Amino acid sequence: MSLYVRKRKRPEINIVPLIDVLTTLIFFFLITMQFKQGHSLGITPPHADTAGPTQAADVVRVQVTKEGEIFINQTRVPEAELPGILSELAKADHERPLLIEIDENSQVKRLALITDEARKVNFQKILLLTR
Fold it and tell me: Which residues is 98 bridged to in the sheet?
């Protein structure tokens, strides 16, 4: 009988390949991820065949849900306060475009109200988001 006992090599996990795979997956998901704007409120813009792409980066964003709620730059605004807030924004920079994102199933009177108030406070450029 041999008294020689062979010591087993302690198992070890090489984490470098695991980090490589994890980094590759993170890059893959970041590249394929789609960043969507304005869809957080569930607005479906109306369809227009002649609409071009909206190229405005720095805009005042007015959103109207199908329930008729009005949001300015993603902050809910009561209808009564709309003229005052638009007036303040126009005083700050009336050259800045006003982009209206309205749900296709909302009432037309909301669109008319917003465009009328924007013209009263002298917004120079009013855009309507379509798809």
Answer: 60, 126
122: left (phi over 0), alpha (psi -120 to 50) or beta: left
Q: How many angstroms separate the CA atoms of 108 and 128, rounded?
A: 13
From CA 122, how far away is CA 116, in angstroms rounded? 10
- Model confidence over 97-115: pLDDT tens digits? 888 888 888 888 888 888 8
CA 41 to CA 39: how far, in whole Å?
Answer: 5
Cβ contact 89:60 at 8 Å: yes
Q: Which residue has the tokens 């969507």?
A: 36
Report CA dihedral (125, 129, 35, 71) to the nearest 10 degrees: 80
* Burial class of residue 60 in the structure, from the number of CB atoms within 10 Å of its CB (0-12 exposed, 13-18 middle, 19+ buried): buried
